[in-house]
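Provenance and format

Records in this collection were gathered into a single text stream. Each protein contributes a sequence line and a token line. The two records reproduced below are adjacent in the stream.
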Amino acid sequence: MSLFRTKNLDHMIAQSRAAGGLKKVLGPLDLVLMGIGAIVGTGIFVLTGTGALTAGPALTLSFVIAALACGFAALCYAEFASTIPVAGSIYTYSYATLGELVAWMIGWDLLLEYGLATSAVSVGWSGYFQSLIGGFGIHLPVALTAARGAVPGVDTWINLPALLIMLVLTAMLSWGVRESARLNCIMVCIKIAVILLFIVVGARHVEPANWQPFMPFGMAGTMSAAALVFFAFIGFDAVTSAAEEVKRPERNLPIGIIGSLAVCTVLYVVVSAIMTGIVQFRSFAGVDHPVSLALQMAREHWVAGFVDLGAILGMSTVILVMSYGQTRVIFAMSRDGLLPERLSRVHPTFGTPFFATWVVGIVFGLVAAVVPLNILTELINIGTLAAFCLVSVAVIVLRRRRPELHRAFRCPWVPVVPALSVLFCVALMTFLSRSTWIAFGIWLAIGLAVYFGYSRRNAVLHRPENTARAA
């Protein structure tokens, strides 16, 4: 059995349209808001402060560089999503072009990326939530406020709010994608309104002198910040995981992917420019709420309160959409036999992968409850960058193998744009720490052990009756 056997594209598309599958209920606005919901959260409310300490006012340039890397990859994603409207994102695309082993490894990578992203964001959500209720004089027992060892010198045991928000949003996802999309739309609209309020109010307090020197740590600092704030753009690829639940996927998926990324890039650049214009960037040292801090220092305390609320809603939508994306990747891998079959069962009433959704919610809710935030965030960026590199390579491969295949959206200037995507992503990966590379290698080694121990012999593609369907 070949490790690089690919799936038949025509069969994959027919399978996605078969009766009894996921419900097709999402339109273009749902997808754009889903993308914004996944992207705008921790990045704009937390990482802007950390990034400013690394790049200074040049943080705006760091966001542009990170957005370019994502933008090139987004064009590649859009071509695949419109051509192969099947659940599973880059895992599915890799299975159709680069082979089973590559598909398994990138799917294994996505499980880590999406899972730890939801855990990390829920920990950030917990901090803002505790700050908000603290303003009303409500305080949780110290032992329930953070994971053990997360706060130096404080005896904490478990992050209860982080676990609870994961379980609440998991319940929403398990009941139905249409209901989850409606909740996401409401929260995204409120979140965007809060950010626009910050822009309008904060612009009046900008002091251009705070932007000097613009690049205090040189280009190296700007690139390091770009590698860090790249986390802020993670999420637009989760839109592709909804492929089987989209009406007119050939049209709506490219709109959702590119539209959400464009809106979020503009918001990030404007907010970071205003924030570093209000406050000298060194003031953000040790601060986990930089946007509201800028307003507090501008004595706009009432707006700062709204920003805290917006941060809570913003992080909620990130958790919701990233959890959604992970369950759909698991659904696709299970349907292919690479994971246990029960994970791809669709609930007869809710039309969702009910069991897989709750497995994800419980497991990564517990991870958020007991693992400190700094450990959670180490692997997220490198996993995403690796995925972006693969989808870019896959576009070139599929163009050469199946030039006649109908593509509702075509990535422009192939192979130049995919090559630029790989170049930008690899450049950002080189600025990540050595420990991150080592940990990522260990995770991939575990994935190889699972593949050769279980997935390879259970793959649907390798069953005798399906051999003819292999490409």
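Adjacent record:
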Amino acid sequence: MTELIKFLIYDEAPELLDLRRQVRAFIEEEKSAGRIKPGPYGWAEPSSDFSRALGRKGWIGMTWPREYGGHERSAIERFVVTEELLAAGAPVRAHWVADRQSGPLLLKFGTKAQREKFLPEIAKGECYFCIGMSEADSGSDLASIRMKATKVDGGWRVTGSKLWTSNAHRVHMMILFARTGPRGESRREGVSQFLVDLSWSGITVRPIINLAGEHDFNEVIFEDVFVPDDMVIGTIGNGWQQVTNELVYERSGPDRWMSTYHVLSGMTGKLKKFPSETRRDTVARLVARLWTMHQMSCSIAGMLENGITPHTEAALVKDLGTCFEQDIPEAARTLFPEELRSTFPENDPFNEALRYSTLYAPAYSIRGGTKEILRGIIAKGLELR
């Protein structure tokens, strides 16, 4: 069988270590000034002020061309900044999707006018995007979408709804995945992508309150919404290739294995006060897995830097990362049982982080593709099916 999966080890050069120090110093300045207050939500907290501050530092759109507001830095440099922001629990949620995948999608498939309009605003931390993929009764089976876009004079009329759309109530734009033609035998034909301004007439964003009692998800309803032709991304009918390219960015980054990093960090701190061989062994194994995820994800950043679209490798990182993220709170509850945690100070950061992570951990294996979908992609990439 052909060797189809390759991960390379990247040793950090001195300039990358210096970049890490710069990000850490910036985070400490923001904390000292009271502009950010890391909490149990970690990086999932949005802050427009912080996003704009990152834009001024040149840490959004880092790899993009300067003509579009970018900074022409390497994918590895962006990886370093991303990792440090997530480790610090910085409130990056507002601009996250736009920087992670919407901008790169427009760079690869968008028109020059689309790039000129949206990319500089994203890079400044002032334009935010959400993902218009999932639908009711579709979930990770994107090929089964029913959202329909019909050609009319000067554009398209869109009718249908998107479900579980994170952050739609806070952002400006959506990249919409819709059906524009016949399904074909594979169901992957006849689909396209559009840029949609969520303030347009006919769009309703309805909140979905999750089991934690919080508003993050939304249903976004389109009722005869007109989308002009200049908002088509790429080529009509080429949506499947485009959306799978986009998902590589969503699945391979540190945000897919660092969601519970603050719990792991908290465990290492608690070990100093409550040492035991079992706790040391378990935490050490988790730290080793963290380092493995770091190396694999960094390797994918290098592939993207070299123009490679690593579908299989990205799916593997997402699958392993999901398991890792879910194992951390499970280990924390076992190593530090409720009887022990009840002795910790009131509002102890470790307890708060563990409570939040325990509530949200089941969802980690859904976002960006379920385990079943990801393992199907991996099996196909390995020529096992």
